[in-house]
């Protein structure tokens, strides 16, 4: 992932899904865990629920959006894919139960010329489990991997920005706690 050199609201990590539908809510689980961590300045985390047009205004505020979502794509549960879609049509065909809302938002952003750089972290699920907040073991493991990897990438981006700007001496120890 390539993050921009920007100021205030730079990167949004957006977890989407239905929390009450088991594995389908994996994006929300990842967002909730990331929001409990200390993250670099310029990064915000949001539980986007099941998407919809209310997210359009949120997307427009950021230069980069990292979208974490479940996908029913025929892959084994817990398969993780990083996608860099350029157009709404490039997004996975079946982004679970909220496919239509997100695709509509992305198409509208694209048409208005206000589409940020979007990365999709797609986590494969096999089926929807209504009325449960638990993730299956394979999807739970994938969620933990995604959380750790996204956090690590965000901190790497932050260090690169500050070292290249001369704000941090390369010999200075950086504390993240």
Would you kindly provide a written description of the structure presented here, covering whatever features stand out?
The protein has 177 residues and is α/β, with parallel strands linked by helices. The protein has a single domain, classed as HybD-like (Rossmann fold). Helices cover 32% and strands 19% of the residues. The protein contains 4 helices and 5 strands; from the N terminus they run E-H-E-H-E-E-H-E-H. Strands 2-1-3-5-4 form a 5-stranded mixed β-sheet, with helices on one face. Helix 1 links the parallel strand 1 (11-16) and strand 2. It is globular. The two termini are 24 Å apart.
CATH topology title: Rossmann fold
What is the assigned CATH homologous superfamily? HybD-like
How many E-type strands? 5
Largest sheet: 5 strands, mixed
Q: Report the total helices.
A: 4
Strand content: 15-25%
| N-to-C span | 24 Å
Number of domains: 1
Just name the CATH architecture. 3-Layer(aba) Sandwich
Structural class: alpha/beta
Write down the secondary-structure element order.
Answer: EHEHEEHEH
Strand order of the largest sheet: 2-1-3-5-4
Helix content: 25-40%
